[in-house]
Amino acid sequence: MNSLLVSNVTKNYRDVRALNNVSVEFERNKIYGLLGRNGAGKTTLLNIITGKIFADQGKVTLNGKEVFENDEMLQNIFMMSERNYYPEGMRVSDAFRWTKEFYPEFDEKRAADLAEQFGLETVKKIRSLSTGYGSIFKLITALCVNVPFVFLDEPVLGLDANHREVFPSCFRIFKRRETMDGNYNTGTGVYVLQRAQLASCKESGRKRLKFKNGGNSQAISPVLTFQYNLKL
To answer: What is the pTM of this model?
Structure first.
């Protein structure tokens, strides 16, 4: 069993129920879209999956082993979040280098190539990056860690119009490379969170997921899964 399984997860923040008995499964080698309006529970769910916060009830397992406080299992998972977890005074190039210390399969060459293509100056310190380039830095990092499960928490939030065009381009480049390597499957699935509960789920075959926010549309958090070897 190589899927990541969320089982009956509930999370409360005092008198607010952020997640209510949510169960989802992420299979290997697919793209998923986690949809929901602000406050639906997407970020809370992703934080629980990646071990940043704990669930009040339920559990998250990978290959049958619980993920929470399990460093061995967490090595297989990476999350790009709105928050920056790197020291603000660290240079982008050093952040790439240190990422490889924690994720040995991190592809520094691919990260450097993507940074050059999208105009991200790796000599800059993280605190000097604009909001848009800060997001691009985090996105490139996420796309180069080479782990089986990558979660992108609303990656286009904070991007201006020009940078919103950069994100799909970056994603397409990554998609083409993985297809060439034989590690990528265009099968997709969609999970919809509404009022702290899983409202629906749908397998969408080979349909394209659109990564857009704004207006009255629901925000989307892409989930990418691959056939990289699990670290057990």
So the answer is: 0.77
